[in-house]
Design brief:
This protein is an alpha+beta fold. It has a single domain, classed as Ribbon (Umud Fragment, subunit A). It is built from 5 helices and 12 strands. The strands form 2 sheets. Strands 1, 2, 3, 4, 9, 10, 11 and 12 form an 8-stranded antiparallel beta sheet that branches. The protein has a 4-stranded antiparallel beta sheet with strand order 7-6-5-8. It starts with 5 loop residues before the first helix and ends with a strand.
């Protein structure tokens, strides 16, 4: 009587188990990268010194969404949208592009810039994170409209369902002073952590997949800014 071929059957079972593990892992990673976090690269200096050109970010896409399961709050923080939050959102003038800025004005608030100082409801806003690279202040009647609104803007009232966003590098940021308010529905998430950073020059904004990011990281290792890696963003 022939004995059953146990080793061959066991080998098939092991191969199947590994295949199922890889498939389950792939589905889990796909779910995480689609619904929970997303990878972004900072292409310009509009958010310096908070975010630098060459920073690679993981963005929490669920931070402003209500938590469905209790464990979600333990893995990724959830909270209401607040002033001074750094956010990723769809650029209102081109929905195929994503911008990163900071929340300055909330719905119903009056926002004004007077000689580079931001006022919310006529009260000066304390902003330890912002920088000004130019000392000269341009008045509202400046012939160059870009310079006029850069240093003196408004007042405007933020409409319901919108926010007023500005970059931290205040003299070098294309933000709500130039193209208006951001619908809250356009907000995609909040930068959570810098998972890689390297010395880079400004480029066109890029939003690519994690595989593209990892390939870039491998080529940029000699220029890495090690102190910024795994830095959490506040």
């Amino acid at each position: 009587m022939n004995k059953p071929k146990e080793p061959q059957r066991r080998t098939k079972n092991i191969v199947r188990e590994y295949f199922e593990l890889v498939a389950e892992t792939a589905v889990f990673v796909f779910f995480i990268m689609t619904f929970v976090v997303q990878a972004f690269q900072i292409p310009s200096g509009s958010m310096e010194p908070t975010l630098l050109v060459g920073d690679f970010l993981l963005v929490n896409k669920l931070v402003y969404a209500p938590a469905v399961f209790p464990f979600e709050k333990l893995v990724l923080p959830h909270r209401d949208l607040k002033r001074r939050d750094t956010i990723i959102f769809k650029y209102p003038e081109n929905l195929t592009k994503d911008f990163v800025k900071r929340v300055i004005g909330l719905p119903g608030e009056k926002v004004e810039v007077r000689d580079k100082q931001v006022y919310i409801n006529d009260q000066p806003l304390q902003e330890p994170y912002k920088v000004h690279i130019y000392n000269q202040v341009y008045p509202k009647n400046e012939q160059d409209p870009n310079l006029a609104v850069r240093d003196n803007f408004g007042p405007v009232v933020v409409p319901p369902g919108h926010i007023f966003a500005m970059g931290d590098n205040r003299d070098n940021s294309l933000d709500s002073r130039y193209w208006g308010f951001v619908p809250i529905s356009y907000i995609k998430g909040r930068p959570w952590m810098i998972y890689f950073s390297y010395n880079a020059e400004s480029t066109a904004f890029q939003k690519t997949g994690l595989r593209d990011h990892l390939s870039k990281i491998a080529s940029f290792l000699p220029k890495a800014r090690w102190r910024r890696i795994f830095k959490f963003i506040r």
